[in-house]
Amino acid sequence: MWSEFLPLMNIPRPPRLGLAASLAKAMLVASAALFPVAAQGASGDREFGEFLAGECVTCHQISGSYDGIPPIIGWPEEAFIHAMEDYRDRTRPNEVMQSIAGRYSDEEIAAMAAYFGSLTLQPRPQ
Amino acid sequence: MTEFTRRRVLIGGAAIAGASALPFGFARPAFSQAKPKVVVIGGGPGGATLAKYLARDSNGAIDVTLVEPKESFTTCFHSNLYLGDVRGWDSINHSYDEIASKYGITHARTTASGIDRNARTVTLADGGTLDYDHLVVAPGISLKYDSVEGYSEEVAERLPHAWLAGPQTQLLKAQLDALEDGAQIVMIAPPNPYRCPPGPYERVSMMAHLLKNKGHTNSRIVILDTKESFSKQGLFSEGWQRHYPGMIEWQDPTMHGGIGAVDADTMTVETDLADYEADLINVIPAQMAGMIAIDAGLANETGYCPIVAETMRSTLDENVTVLGDATIAGDMPKSGFSANSQAKVAANAIRASLTDSRQFPARYANTCWSLIDTDDAVKVGGRYEPKDGKITAVETFVSQTGEDAEMRRRTQEENMGWYAGIVADIFT
């Protein structure tokens, strides 16, 4: 059972996909790590993602701070995409997130994954 | 219909149009000092978010002025939690200083007293005038004091509405804190459409929460409603029975038969059924768009401002965008979350029209959390897109009655997390 408020450290989750698809994804991740230029080309539209992210950052703080709603910055893009796919097909609970993810296309999710994945934790001001 | 008409660039009194035409047929300002000017009236969740996003994302290419008399903003959202002692006063107040300095927004600390849409100027209460290429009007609501007989702005100093957060909220809190056990509170709840649909009922919950915590279980709250039903009704009714049995009574018009006059001297509220004596009377009157929008002719016969669903631009003036509670936003409720969401769509559209940056399709969202008692929160929300000429709900959800305590506790955690998130989004 995946928690509704999954902390960042638990994000990589057992693949839901068949073995072949999992291997393909694993290879994609591996090749992305080896060939960063190619990975950039395969990644989502970051600028579009930044616009779409406007909806997310009303609750998920762009600084990465946690005050009851988990941070979503700096995730591996694949992990972000998996989480959103699980909300979209309602295998992961939370009505707000299911409602949000339900309206996004693969392209849009990839765009947000690219944007949030590019952000790093900001120290909380005193 | 996604672009604004670029303002002619006036230099030395002469209009130079199309001096350097862009592929899309817009005139780019001829000189670098002719930066497009955007004036934002109102520093609530709509106006402040718009100012921040526009200034931040344009990297100085647009001159952004926020006209807002206050130094800091008291959020209406979570002001009920302040009434219930769940939050402190400071925690719902937020300064504009950080966004002004960080993103280069000019904060004009004065009131906008008028808009000349032909001249494209805003006159200020301090005597100044601001020119604009595009104007954003985000004035929130104004109260129709005369919708309740005997009520007025003066009477509100004794019978608070507390529907514009600030000193009114503190007045209501002081009155609430001074009550003895056995006190009777009467709330007059407003007709639709109004700011924050679940707000009156969350407020009653937080009043009851405070009274219960003080052991004042003989106190009573009567809600005289002008509506036959209200937002999250089943959830609130269930919660009131569970947490505050016998303390809260809700009356729709078929029960009270009609609300008559309020009298601050005798502390009574007349209805067709009976006259109610009260120790505290909270009058939430009917509402309409903020006066500056009405005075500028941006509202229609409904008292609210019609907008283009794709951009939040006024249907009555293409050089004006209206945001938040003042608008007719289709299926979106009047909430801080809605205004914040609309501001981001509008900022993208305005920036695209003034600087030829990319414009993306509008998407809107809203969620309203309401706290009923400690660790018992509920939520309602949806996602919205332009459809059939209005902002239309494409996905909605609402908490269910009978949810377990753990779910409600997590919803409250989410509620507090959302507050921290949205104020960081607006004010940092």
Please explain how this structure is put together.
The complex is a heterodimer of chains A (126) and B (428). Chain A has helices at 19-34, 36-42, 46-56, 77-88, 95-101, 106-117. Chain A has 126 residues and is mainly alpha-helical. Chain A has a domain at 44-117: Orthogonal Bundle (Cytochrome Bc1 Complex, Chain D, domain 2). The longest helix of chain A is centred in the N-terminal third of the chain and has 16 residues, at 19-34. Chain A is globular. With 428 residues, chain B is α/β, with parallel strands linked by helices. Chain B has two domains: 9-140 and 290-359, 3-Layer(bba) Sandwich (FAD/NAD(P)-binding domain), CATH 3.50.50; 146-286, FAD/NAD(P)-binding domain (3-Layer(bba) Sandwich), CATH 3.50.50. Chain B is built from ten helices and 26 strands. Chain B is globular. Chain A binds chain B through residues 4-5, 47-48, 51-52, 54-55, 57-63, 65-69, 95-96, 98-100, 102-103, and chain B through 53, 337, 340-341, 344-345, 348, 358, 360, 363, 365, 367, 379, 381-383, 385, 394-397, 399, 410, 413-422, 424-425, 428.
**Content-based structural category of chain A:** mainly alpha
SS class of chain B: alpha/beta
Shape label of chain A: globular
DSSP, total strands of chain B: 26
Helix content of chain B: 25-40%
CATH superfamily of one domain in chain A: Cytochrome c-like domain
Main CATH class of one domain in chain A: Mainly Alpha
Greatest interface and its residue counts?
A: A-B, 27 and 36 residues
> What is the overall silhouette of chain B?
globular
CATH architecture of the largest domain in chain B: 3-Layer(bba) Sandwich
Low-confidence stretches of chain B: 1-32
The topology string of helices and strands of chain A comes to: HHHHHH
In the CATH hierarchy, the third-tier topology of one domain in chain A is known as Cytochrome Bc1 Complex, Chain D, domain 2
Biggest β-sheet of chain B, characterized? 5 strands, parallel
Report the strand count of chain A: 0
- Count of the separate structural domains of chain B: 2
